Amino acid sequence: MDAITLLREDHATARELFRRFQAAGLDAHKTKRKIVDRIIEELAVHAAIEEQVFYPAVRSAVKNSDNDVLESLEEHHIVKWTLSELEDMDPLDERFDPKVGVLIENVRHHMREEEGEMFPRVRKALGTNALRELGQRMLAAKEAAPTRPHPRSPDTPPGNLIAAPVAAVLDAGKEAVAKLRGRK
Fold first, then answer.
1. E-strand spans in the chain?
2. DSSP codes joined into one string, 52-87
C-alpha cells in the first residue's frame, strides 16, 4: 500500500469515529468514552508514523515543503495536548463534549490541508514506487508506535525515533493496568 493511501485510510477511520461520537446521544457517556479512547489511540499512532517517517520524507523530496511540514507538526502538537487532556477526563465533565468538538474541528482542518495540498505535491514528487516503499516503512512503524499522546516528546528525528519506542512500551504497560482495573 502506498503512503498516501495509508494516510487517507487513517483519515477515513478518524472521520468515522468523529461521526459516531457526534451521533451518540447526550447521555451516551460510556459510548462516548469508548469512542474517545479509540480516537486517542488512532490519532496517536497516525501522528507518530507521520512524524517518524512521512514528514521527513516530504521535507527531503518535496521542494519548499518545510513550512507545510512545520505547520503540520504544530497542528499535531495541539491535537496531542487535547488528546492528553481527554485521556483522563470524565465524560460527565461539562467540558468533555466541547473539548472533543474542538479536537474534531482541528483534526478535520489538518486532514483537509494534507489531502488537498500536501498529498498531491508528495505524489507528484515521489512517484509510485517511492510511495509504495514509504507506505511499507509506515506500516512497520505503526506496529511499534505509541498508542497514547505524548505532547512533551520530540516530534522530529532523531529525538522521536528514540522516544517513540520507549513511549510505546509505557503505553502498553498503561493499557495492561487499565485492563486489570476494568477500564477497557
1. none
2. IIIHHHHHHHSTT-HHHHHHHHHHHHHHHHHHHHHH
In whole angstroms, give the CA distance from residue 53 to residue 67: 17
Output the nine-digit C-alpha cell for 102.
Answer: 474542538
Cis peptide bond upstream of 120, omega within 30: no
pTM for the full predicted model: 0.88
- The region that residue 38 occupies, defined by phi over 0 for left and psi between -120 and 50 for alpha, beta otherwise, is alpha
Check residues 105 and 158 and name the one with the higher pLDDT.
105
Domain that holds residue 146: 3-180
Q: Are 58 and 118 in contact (CB under 8 A)?
A: yes
Cis amide prior to 158 (ω within 30 degrees): yes
What is the tens place of the pLDDT at every residue in 87-97? 999 999 999 99
DSSP state of 147: S
Residue type present at position 153:
S
**What cell does 75 get?**
497542528
Q: For the domain that residue 174 is a member of, what is the CATH number?
A: 1.20.120
The DSSP H or E segment spanning 2 is none
Count of the separate structural domains present in the chain: 1
